[in-house]
UniProtKB/TrEMBL annotation, chain A:
Record-linked InterPro entries: PHA_synth_III_E
Top-level division of the source organism's lineage: Bacteria
Compositional bias segments (type: Basic and acidic residues): 396-406
Region described as Disordered: spans on this chain: 390-423
Keyword Coiled coil: yes
Gene Ontology biological process terms from the UniProt entry: poly-hydroxybutyrate biosynthetic process
Family matches, as Pfam families: PHA_synth_III_E
UniProt KW keywords: Coiled coil, PHB biosynthesis
Keyword Coiled coil: yes
Pathway listed: Biopolymer metabolism; poly-(R)-3-hydroxybutanoate biosynthesis
Species annotation: Raineya orbicola
Protein name, UniProt field: Poly(3-hydroxyalkanoate) polymerase subunit PhaE
Coiled coil location: 363-390
Automatic annotation (TrEMBL), chain B:
Gene3D superfamilies listed in its UniProt record: alpha/beta hydrolase (3.40.50.1820)
Known pathway: Biopolymer metabolism; poly-(R)-3-hydroxybutanoate biosynthesis
Keyword field contains Zinc-finger: no
Residue span, AB hydrolase-1 domain: 87-353
PANTHER family membership: POLY(3-HYDROXYALKANOATE) POLYMERASE SUBUNIT PHAC (PTHR36837)
One GO BP annotation of this record: poly-hydroxybutyrate biosynthetic process
Signal peptide from the UniProt entry: none
GO-annotated molecular function: acyltransferase activity
NCBIfam families named among the record's database cross-references: PHA_synth_III_C (TIGR01836)
Name this polypeptide is given: Poly(3-hydroxyalkanoate) polymerase subunit PhaC
Length: 423, 374
């Protein structure tokens, strides 16, 4: 891409001089940019620029929506939360759109994963900018910060947004992901249980109806909910004779409990991460204010602020990850997540039982036998090799001969009945 | 619309309103500039990255000379005869790939070794699948590693070879040297955990709380490489944010960019671990520290570190966050070798292989040390 114009300046200038609407000006800017970008002849580049143009137009629309929101909410007390929301949406939309052509045309490219990561962390970078920039504007006004500056800044920050950034940077489930997770669980289980229900003549319908509600209320009831599903369904389970269906149902109930437990543990971990991240932000703000108090003429850049935040947050996070409470939670969540995987596999084996497919458990038995046989073969080969070397060394001592690597290797290959040496 | 809002706000002191208006305008301008700047950088990154079709690592020419299952032994090509007669076998860790030793031509310990006259072999452990779930430490050490050693001894018609073990491969090499001391002339260990009483590294923390049997069993008998990578990220939680936000500024510098991408490729290439081996490594070493207590049993062999009498060069990295120095340094206390040298490398775990000092100082130090004992 050519070094572009400062499109914001261009936009403002155009609005003034040519009396155009913002959208007209923006469209023209994008068209000019497209013309001047000299797309390459290859098929992918042209498509990319068309896609980029399209997404930039989308971004433009949201841009103006953002401005509109800002103007409508123009009041000192309201801060800029809603405006920043619009910015954020705009960037997210652009970000996701922009990634598409790369994924589409360059999925075989070694750098595709790197670009994806760049995109993801760019979004975090911009979210941090949104977080720090209003505070830095205040701090860089050349005045000594007020006594209650920290309190003012702290109150101006949307902790919800900050927690989202923390979740993305340090890992874990965001509230949206948690909700999706629960919905997926409930949906999957419902489908499976519906199928089973057909086979059990509807006996389980009422018990099963409680599943989504139970899942929905888990966060509030936390541990109390854990295991309740199994207990509530146990009487019904006793009524079902031993069968594949019963095993499936039992597995599914265990899965539900595992899901619930995993969800709870993930949220507990997330809470620890967010608390630590908030401490890091508090400390960062205090240090920034202190810096301005001591050096009022010093202009704090965004990079300086984020570097300070990262320098403060990193050791705090490492300390958290090393702590016993986090370590235990992580271990429990990890064990549960792998148990879920295992129960899924068992369910699949039961479901596939009537089909002529070898299940993994049988393959594992074969693997164990193959492994043992290979050990024995390897031991024999090594012993043979040792004997050959001893013979070679003995004959070398008796009558020195030039090194004959090829002959020895060839002999070795023949003795094993398969080509070993590929040099 | 704006006027209307301003009129509504006239109840407040006019200066405050104007200041706020100015501030918000400034914020919009600033934010817009930042978005634009970032957009330009991303677009540029897109163009540059999409034109890169392949990122080469491990390019030093080599031949596949021996293979057993998924394990391969390579011998690096030399244009001139080796000046050090005893060949060197490199035993890398099972975690990540040995390409780190040969990341790119100007950052390659391997090339440096070849230039300085060594005959170099390297083991590629391959990629573990569920079929390898029963592969144990005994298989790796007394089976595959021993198979490689036997091949080299047989090919060169020599009794002893030089062995260089890296990280976990260093631990394996120490164990191998204790079990088969008659086959090793000189032992070099790089950033290898030996004393597991230190609790700072990732696996030290994980081993405290994780039920490794349960996790392996539930993962089909393997430890996923991705899971290990999550753990490694937790050791430096900010490193990804730092590197991915700053990489867009190096797009103009092709050399720097390619260095970055090669490292990315190496990091992403993290094989799964065979469950049996991983379990023993965690339980016997990380949890019970059996190696230095001479209580470790590998296959039919009880590992006695006092059997190690050959010369040892023990290299550790001063700022190693994966294998903290206290895990590597005390090797000399547990072995019977009289000729043992400990070398402090001023850098981190990865810097040992790709740092400028690695090429200029470390590689020549290793080769000279081997030369003196050839």
């Amino acid at each position: 891409m050519n070094k572009p114009y400062n499109f914001f300046e261009y936009w403002m200038k155009d609005l003034k001089e040519q009396n155009k609407t913002p959208m007209q000006a923006y469209q023209e800017f994008m068209q000019n940019m497209l013309k001047s970008s000299q797309p390459k002849e290859e098929a992918g580049s042209q498509e990319f620029f068309q896609e980029m143009m399209k997404t930039q137009m989308e971004m433009g629309k949201m841009w103006f929506q953002g401005v509109q929101t800002m103007l409508e909410n123009f009041a000192p007390q309201k801060k800029e939360a809603s405006m920043f929301d619009s910015w954020s949406k705009m960037y997210s939309a652009w970000n996701s759109q922009f990634g598409k052509p790369f994924t589409g045309q360059a999925s075989r490219n070694d750098a595709a994963e790197t670009f994806k990561n760049i995109m993801t962390f760019s979004q975090n970078y911009m979210q941090l900018y949104q977080l720090f920039q209003p505070i830095l504007e205040q701090l860089n006004m050349g005045k000594k910060p007020k006594k209650n500056a920290f309190q003012e800044f702290w109150e101006s920050i949307s902790l919800e947004k900050y927690n989202e950034i923390a979740s993305q940077v340090f890992g874990g489930l965001t509230p949206e992901q948690s909700e999706n997770f629960l919905q997926q669980i409930a949906s999957f289980s419902q489908k499976l249980l519906d199928d089973l229900n057909k086979q059990t003549g509807g006996t389980l319908t009422k018990a099963i109806e409680s599943v989504p509600d139970l899942m929905h209320n888990l966060q509030a009831t936390q541990y109390q909910a854990f295991g309740k599903l199994q207990k509530s369904i146990n009487p019904f389970l006793k009524m079902i004779p031993d069968s594949k269906e019963k095993q499936l149902l039992e597995l599914n109930i265990q899965l539900q409990d595992d899901y619930a437990f995993y969800y709870i543990k993930s949220n507990e971990m997330q809470s620890l991460v967010q608390k630590t991240a908030q401490k890091a932000l508090e400390q960062t703000l205090k240090e920034l204010i202190e810096k301005v108090k001591n050096q009022p003429e010093h202009i704090i850049t965004f990079e300086e602020a984020t570097n300070l935040w990262m320098d403060i947050a990193e050791p705090m996070m490492i300390e958290l990850y090393r702590s016993e409470p986090f370590g235990k939670l992580q271990a429990e969540a990890l064990a549960t997540s792998t148990a879920i995987k295992n129960r899924f596999e068992k369910q699949m084996e039961l479901l596939l039982e009537p089909l002529p497919i070898a299940p993994r458990s049988e393959i594992d038995e074969l693997n164990a036998i193959i492994h043992e046989l290979r050990r024995k073969v390897r031991a024999l080969e090594n012993e043979l090799s040792r004997q050959q070397l001893n013979q070679a060394l003995q004959s070398k001592e008796a009558k020195p001969t030039p090194k004959n690597e090829e002959a020895i290797a060839e002999n070795q290959s023949k003795s094993r009945g398969r080509p070993k040496k590929t040099q | 619309m704006l006027d209307g809002k301003i009129c509504n706000l006239m109840k407040e002191p006019i200066n405050k309103v104007l200041n706020t208006k100015y501030m918000i305008q400034q914020q919009i301008l600033s934010l817009a500039d930042k978005y634009q700047e970032r957009t330009e950088k991303l677009a540029k990154s897109y163009h540059i990255l999409s034109e890169i079709k392949e990122i080469d690592v491990g390019t030093t020419p080599k031949d596949l000379v021996w293979k057993d299952g998924k394990i391969s032994l390579f011998r690096y090509k030399r244009s001139t005869p080796a000046t050090i007669k005893t060949p060197l076998l490199i035993c890398y860790a099972l975690v990540n790939k040995q390409d780190m030793m040969d990341l790119q031509p100007d950052r390659s310990v391997i090339r440096k070794f070849l230039d300085l006259g060594l005959d170099v072999y390297i083991i590629d452990w391959g990629y573990v699948t569920r079929a390898d779930r029963y592969t144990s430490m005994d298989d790796y050490i007394n089976g595959y590693l021993n198979g490689c050693v036997e091949y080299i001894r047989r090919t060169h018609q020599i009794e002893k070879i030089n062995l260089l073990g890296v990280c976990q491969g260093g631990t394996f090499s120490v164990i191998y040297s204790a079990i088969h001391p008659e086959k090793i002339k000189n032992l070099v260990v790089m950033v290898a955990p030996i004393d597991f009483s230190n609790k700072e590294g990732l696996l030290f923390q994980w081993s405290t709380y994780l039920n490794v049997d349960e996790i392996i069993e539930n993962n089909g008998g393997i430890m996923p490489g991705e899971l290990l990578n999550v753990g490694f990220d937790m050791l430096k939680p900010m490193s990804k944010l730092r590197k991915y936000t700053s990489v867009v500024d190096m797009m103009d510098d092709e050399d720097k960019l390619m260095n970055f991408l090669r490292m990315e490729k190496w990091v992403a290439n993290s094989p799964d671990q065979a469950g049996e081996c991983f379990k023993q490594f965690i339980k016997d070493l990380y949890q019970e520290n059996k190696l230095i207590k001479n209580e470790l049993v590998v296959g039919n062999h009880k590992v006695n570190m006092k059997n190690i009498t050959m010369p040892i060069l023990n290299i550790y990295a001063e700022a190693d966050h994966l294998v903290p120095p206290p895990c590597s340094i005390p090797l000399d206390k547990f072995v019977a070798s009289k000729d043992i040298q400990t070398y402090k490398f001023p850098g981190g775990h990865i810097g040992v292989f790709v740092g400028a000092r690695s090429q200029k100082e470390l590689a020549p130090t290793i080769v000279n040390w081997l030369k003196e004992r050839d």
